[in-house]
């Protein structure tokens, strides 16, 4: 163990990122500094939102922009190789942290979260279920209600539909980008109906899928999907805004803004609430997720790509809508 590979941004992408915009670079295994643990990464998450960081990022967001020459980052699970005395970390134990996209990482020990055994599979820690669960808790979802999840096949959405059902939703509708994925939403992920972006007028499809309207929207997309959802919102509907894939993955923009024109009369007359996501409400997520997994009540849709040399392709495919669920690179 003397060398480590990592994925760097080679050039600012023109349009949506392509594999040629990245390079895999071999570097010495990092020497941990004061208070740092050396971690050998086993898995990391590939997520479309990186596109926003290549475009310069968004002021006030928790993650900095990624410039050419920078190593990418994101959620990872790895094995502790060495840890500072008194850190409580033990060599060999699995931790989650934020320095993915590299084989070895020197991570501040305080930022390493030991996984324990609450979840049966370490990869489950890389799923975005906490986000989905937070959104549904924030919405005040009640038994018997109808939920619409935009981006229903992504990392967040592939769990949001299932969690909505487990929390008592009566009807769950998801949007996705292809007929094949729409079928899987219904057959594998607990959705009652799926609607397609880029096909028939979106608001017409949604009105057919939700003939009695929707009570809750978990919005990963924004754009015309949010606009359409307002037209079918029932009085008192609650929308939780999680992401902005429409703006984030607009090939003609930089991914750093997500404008949408809404008919505010719909909001006022139907007393609709639109709130930004607050992830901090999901304090019991890991325990509930673990119990649902062990009881076989939830599945973790995922795509595993083996080898860091394929990570950039996996990112481009994720952005292109090729995959369903959480996309993981296994090292
Ligand atoms: N606020 C937070 O704490 C938080 C946490 C996690 C995620 N997020 C945000 O939530 C959103 C979803 O995250 P995620 O991890 O689930 O995403 P993801 O899995 O990386 O989503 C990728 C999917 O986006 C869809 N897509 C591609 N182009 C699109 C377009 N032009 N319009 C709409 N959808 C498009 C494709 O699915 P289909 O082909 O099936 O449409 C693609 O597979 C992102 O905006 C992310 O930044 C926020």
Instruction: Tell me the name of the CATH class of the largest domain.
Output: Alpha Beta
Residues in β-strands, percent = 25-35%
- CATH fold-level label of the largest domain: Quinone Oxidoreductase, Chain A, domain 1
How many domains? The number is: 2
Number of helices: 10
Tally of strands: 15
Secondary-structure-derived class: alpha/beta
Helix content: 10-25%
Distinct ligands, ions and cofactors found in the model: NADP nicotinamide-adenine-dinucleotide phosphate
Task: Describe the global form.
Answer: globular
CATH architecture descriptor name of the largest domain: Alpha-Beta Complex
* SSE pattern, N- to C-terminal: EEEHEEEEHEHEHEHEHEHHEHEHE
Tell me about the largest β-sheet: 7 strands, mixed
Q: Terminal Cα separation, in Å? A: 14 Å
Mean pLDDT: 97
Oligomer: single chain
Give the radius of gyration.
20 Å
Can you lay out the helices and strands and say which pair or pack?
Elements: E1 3-9, E2 22-28, E3 36-46, H1 50-54, E4 76-82, E5 94-97, E6 104-108, E7 113-114, H2 129-139, E8 146-149, H3 157-166, E9 171-176, H4 179-188, E10 193-196, H5 202-209, E11 214-219, H6 223-231, E12 233-241, H7 245-248, H8 264-269, E13 273-276, H9 285-294, E14 302-306, H10 311-319, E15 326-330
Parallel strand pairs: 8-9, 8-11, 9-10, 11-12, 12-13, 14-15
Antiparallel strand pairs: 1-2, 3-4, 3-6, 3-15, 4-5, 5-7
This protein binds NADP nicotinamide-adenine-dinucleotide phosphate.
């Amino acid at each position: 163990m003397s060398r480590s590979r990592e994925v760097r941004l080679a050039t600012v992408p023109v349009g949506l990122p392509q594999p040629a915009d990245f390079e895999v670079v071999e570097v010495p295994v990092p020497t941990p500094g004061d208070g740092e643990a050396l971690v050998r990464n086993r898995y990391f998450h590939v997520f479309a939102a990186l596109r926003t960081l290549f475009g310069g990022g968004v002021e006030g967001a928790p993650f900095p922009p990624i410039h050419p020459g920078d190593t990418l980052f994101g959620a990872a699970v790895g094995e502790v190789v060495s840890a500072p005395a008194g850190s409580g970390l033990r060599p060999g134990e699995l931790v989650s942290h934020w320095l993915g996209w590299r084989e070895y990482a020197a991570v501040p020990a305080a930022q390493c979260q030991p996984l324990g055994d609450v979840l049966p599979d370490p990869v489950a820690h890389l799923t975005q279920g906490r986000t989905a669960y937070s959104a549904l808790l924030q919405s005040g979802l009640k038994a018997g209600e109808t939920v619409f999840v935009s981006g229903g096949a992504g990392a967040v959405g592939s769990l949001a539909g299932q969690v909505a059902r487990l929390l008592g939703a009566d009807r769950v509708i998801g949007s996705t980008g292809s007929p094949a994925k729409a079928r899987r939403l219904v057959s594998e992920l607990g959705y009652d109906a799926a609607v397609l972006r880029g096909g028939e007028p979106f608001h017409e499809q949604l009105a057919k899928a939700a003939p009695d309207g929707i009570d809750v929207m978990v919005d990963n997309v924004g754009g015309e999907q949010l606009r359409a959802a307002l037209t079918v919102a029932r009085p008192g509907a609650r929308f939780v805004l999680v992401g902005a894939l429409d703006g984030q993955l607009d090939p003609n923009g930089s991914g750093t803004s997500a404008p949408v024109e809404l008919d505010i009369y719909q909001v006022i007359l139907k007393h609709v609430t639109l709130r930004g996501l607050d992830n901090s409400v999901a304090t019991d997520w890991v325990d509930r997720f673990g119990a649902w997994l062990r009881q076989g009540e939830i599945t973790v849709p995922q795509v595993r790509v083996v080898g860091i040399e394929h990570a950039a392709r996996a990112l481009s495919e994720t952005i292109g809508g090729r995959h369903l669920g959480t996309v993981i690179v296994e090292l």
